[in-house]
Structures are given as structure tokens and as C-alpha cells.
Amino acid sequence: MDNINVLIIEDTPVESDALVKVLTENNYNVVGVAANYNDALKLFYQNTIDIVIIDVFLDGKPDGITFAETINIVPNGLKPFVFLTSSKDRQIFERAKLTKPFSFLLKPFNELEILYALEMAVEKFYGQANVFHSEDQNTVVSNDSLFIKKNKVLKKVQVEDIVYIEVEDRYCNIITEVEKFVILISLTKIIQLLDATKFCQTHRNYIVNISKIEEIIVNDNLVILKGNHKVTLSDKYKDFVKNFRILR
Questions:
Q1: Does residue 2 sit in helix, strand or coil?
Q2: Is 15 exposed, middle or buried (0-12, 13-18, 19+ CB in 10 A)?
Q3: CA–CA separation, 144 and 195 (whole Å)
Q4: N or C: which end of the chain has fewer CB within 10 A?
Q5: Strand (E) or helix (H) holding 34
Q6: Helix, coil or strand: residue 88
Q7: How far apart are CA 69 and CA 78, in angstroms?
Q8: What are the φ and ψ backbone dihedral angles of 164, each rounded to 5 degrees?
Q9: Which phi-psi region, left, alpha or beta, contains residue 128 (left: φ > 0; alpha: ψ -120 to 50)?
Q10: Any alpha helices (H) in the chain, and if so which ranges?
């Protein structure tokens, strides 16, 4: 499990320091701060980035927009981003709008506005139609991660870190090696979103990460997973066991 990785592109140290403080206090991981276009691109390609906060003007030039235009067109470069600016120039706004930012915030930034903008950007970019809500959590399912809001903190759970998933009524328990999450989604729906070559169903109530399987005890209808987790193996789902070492 990882915190969400944020790249900050801001050339005013006081403002970049304030952004870093707000984000780290709210459990975001700031992977770097860049003050110019070239440094921003270097950090962008050297790190795993989930979202970017971009100052429109860098050293008096709209290089923040140029950066957004660049990542929109390079292969695998597209990431959600939020613009910050003190400019009220309509032409600059129109050019920035063409890059399709998820928010456009005026300086001085408001802490809650930044946090809400990041959450909305993650939801819209990664979740698209796969967004699920419960009373205390929001969950976005992307190809390789779950973005889960837990105790007012947005966390990123790598799909590969999931040990197994257990259904309870309309909810699913997402079990990793270090933490448990509860989200509002049916088992049928979530299995459609997972890679069938990496996850398999062992019971009507369980989906397991194949890479986390350590033993299969067919006679006891039991699958042993990493961390000594145990799930039920029903007759209906036994076909996949031929690929594993079996204890009888």
C-alpha cells in the first residue's frame, strides 16, 4: 500500500513549502518539487506520479501550461493535474483550459480547496465509471490501484498487494498484508474489474490473488495465502488448482 504520489510544480518557495506542508499532513507523498519546466519533466519521468499540482506561470512564463500540454501528448504521460495561478488573464485561462485540468484554483490557495480538488481529480481520472460510495469511504478502482478514502485520508492500494477479497452482503473486505479496507461493491462487480490471470475465485465469497497462494489443501477445501490467511475452496472453483502444488 502506498500514499498517493504528488508532484508539485511551483517556483515560489513560500508557496511550494506551504503545499508540501498541507499534503504531508494529509498523508500524501510529495515525490518532488520543481521550479521550472525542465526539472518538472525530469521528476515526472523519474518517479511514479499519481497527480500533479501545477503553477501556471514559472519564472514569468506560462511554462506550467507547456508542461501540461507535454504530458498530454507523450505516450503513457497523461496524469490528472490541478492548476494554481494568480493570473486573471482570460487568454491564459483559455489556453490552460484546453489541456483539460481537473481544477483551476486561484492563489492564495485554500487548504480544503486543494484537498477536495485532488480527491475529485483522482475520482474522475482513475475511476471514470467505477466509483463506489459508502457512508465512510469512497473508492475508485483503476487498472492497477484502488484509491480508498479511509478516516478522511485518501490511500492508494496497489492491486498486486491485495491478498484476498471477502464479500459480506453488499460490502467487500479488501485484505492486504498490512491492512483491511471495507468498500461498498459486490463481489461479482469487483471480479469483473480485476485481471483474471492474476485473481481467481475460490468460493462464492472469496477472490484470491494467485501470486499470494502458498498451499492448496484440496481434501480440506482450504487455500493458504501469504501471511497465513486461509480461505475456503469450494468444489465449483477447483479447476484452477491444477497449476499449483497440491497437498492431499
A1: strand
A2: middle
A3: 9
A4: C
A5: strand 29-34
A6: coil
A7: 10
A8: -160, 170
A9: left
A10: 13-25, 37-46, 63-73, 90-98, 111-122, 187-193
From the list 16, 56, 15, 49, the residue with the least C-alpha distance to 33 is 16
Backbone φ and ψ of 71, nearest 5°: -70, -15
Cell triple for 209:
490473488
Going by C-beta distance under 8 Å and a sequence separation of 6 or more, which residues neighbour residue 201? 187, 191, 207, 208, 237
Tens digit of pLDDT for each residue in 70-99?
988 876 667 889 999 988 888 988 999 999
**DSSP 8-class letter at 124:** I
d(CA 20, CA 39): 17
Number of neighbours of residue 162 by Cβ within 10 angstroms: 23
Residue 198 has pLDDT above 80, yes or no: yes
Three-class DSSP category at 159? helix
The pTM for the full model equals 0.66
